[in-house]
## 1
Amino acid sequence: MTRPRPVVNCVRSALCPAVMALGAVAGLGERTGDTLPPFHQRLIAERSAAGQRLLLKDEWQAAWQKGHAWTPAQAAEAAERWLAVKLIPQQSSPAPRRPGQA
């Protein structure tokens, strides 16, 4: 059974950074010998499987391998960049005022 073509483009979505982060967790754990609790291991496996379903195989592998190779400093820098983008509120225009409103 073939899976349907993914509708998500890794470059234009938040999936690539997420897959890179998952790869970083796996890679750093392997290199340091640290193991995550079973709950977190299961979450990573579930999120990885979801990413694999949504992305093309080459996109997923490239993102996973990139994150897997990160040093702790690179992973922290990527997380800080991601959080900065996500935490900056979107600028919006003020609502138009009605006549008589101050």
Note: The chain has a mean pLDDT of 81.
## 2
Amino acid sequence: MQVAYSHDANACAAFARQAAEDWHAFLVHRADELRPGGQLVVLTMAKTDADDFGYRLVIDALIGALMDLAAEGVVSSKGNREDGDPDLRAHARGVRGAV
């Protein structure tokens, strides 16, 4: 869910490479959209020198909620390739009941 949790050097390196490519593509496309003199403001997460990304409490709460929903059978760790959902697929009936 968040690369900042990973201790896998290969995963972190792959994330960094992909992030660099994504940022380049993002900035190229935004540059095409800006009018002369226009400015772009971007807010995003970053890690501190202590490797904290600042949203750990929020991410921990999200993971905890997902684990609770998985324990209740509302979500599954099996991805549904037919509709393109990622690893945790919410079942509509269960989600409505949980909200």
Note: Residues 55-99 form one domain.
## 3
Amino acid sequence: MAETVPGCSIEYAGKADPDNRTYIVDFSKLATTLPTFQPKWTRAQAPPELYQAYHIAQLQFDDFQAENTSASNNSSTSSMRAD
């Protein structure tokens, strides 16, 4: 993300509790069901796509803060604006 967004810096929550969830996934069913499937996207392609979408939607930093989003007050309401 830092390579995509001008002026971006990544901060890690130093005092946060560790996330002990596991994300081990078994893709054997996918390989069996769709043996010729080849993904078209890589995780490196996601940040530019998201950055462009956020820019088009005119999202700002404050839109992602829980106290400023309608989504935090009403789960059925999206905080993203569409043009």
Note: The first helix runs from residue 28 to 33.
## 4
Amino acid sequence: MELILSSHCLIFSCLFFSLGVVGTIINYSNLIILLVSIEFMLLGINTNFIVFSNTFGHQDGYVFVFFILTMAAAEMALGLSISINLFRRNITDISKSRVLLG
């Protein structure tokens, strides 16, 4: 059985965060892909918190992960409501949407 080192987990975390950043920069017009990219970035951050909590023996990272997951759930609920609102108005490209300006 191989031991999973902290460096492996940090590389995994860095890859997820980088994937989220690239997805956010490249595809800013599709709302669903934008929200999934933000979730990838939050997953990378959560993995960092868990790895450093295990490495240093503190429980503070798990508390931060709990709050980040709560915030991510609220963000997904808000994003889903916005996407449903845009879908009802037959708007597919959010970069051309002027509905949400107020």
Note: The two ends are 58 Å apart (CA to CA).
